[in-house]
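Honest question from a wet-lab person: if I give you the sequences of every part of a complex, can you actually get the arrangement of the whole thing, not just the pieces? Trying it with mine:
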Amino acid sequence: GQQLNQSPQSMFIQEGEDVSMNCTSSSIFNTWLWYKQDPGEGPVLLIALYKAGELTSNGRLTAQFGITRKDSFLNISASIPSDVGIYFCAGTDSWGKLQFGAGTQVVVTP
Amino acid sequence: GAVVSQHPSWVICKSGTSVKIECRSLDFQATTMFWYRQFPKQSLMLMATSNEGSKATYEQGVEKDKFLINHASLTLSTLTVTSAHPEDSSFYICSAREFRVGSKNIQYFGAGTRLSVL
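Yes, you can. This is the full assembly:
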């Protein structure tokens, strides 16, 4: 079963606000990835993290690989309507498999 | 770069028929492809791992005779849902991992296939 605990489950925010979500794991991951999925589409990679403590930005997105290698967060600054979607964290375990979090539904209102 | 094409995007079939879904890596070679299933409002569930030229590895609880996987080349894997029934209706998504020394072991996903079995 899933080892990742992703929170929050959903967020309703106003345009311009910042968004923050995180994932924790019961075990160590070698890689942390953040994907976004739009309805009826496959996940699209947003940010990939490879080293403990790594902080990486991609435009308005910022993500960090936790020092303990058991957690990661994703921040979205100054949200816009097209940020709507489901965000998934994923970690690569020691067998090379990708474990997914349950997802965070983001809704942005004008 | 790193584009994965999945076809068809949507299929409706009668109960008892078989459906084939294709997954292609368009601009890179993928020794390993993955097949996931996703139920509404849920996360992705790994069904099987497909390695080029060898038999797929199925996750616990996934029937290998029901979900046939073929990975005949470094750019193509297929999933065939045999004798489909309404409970097989779901969103199926493939992903591909690039084969290259120094590659980052990232999975890139197709756009998914919505299967509806009547």
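Two things worth pointing out. Chain A is about 0% helix and 55% strand. Chain A has a mean pLDDT of 93.
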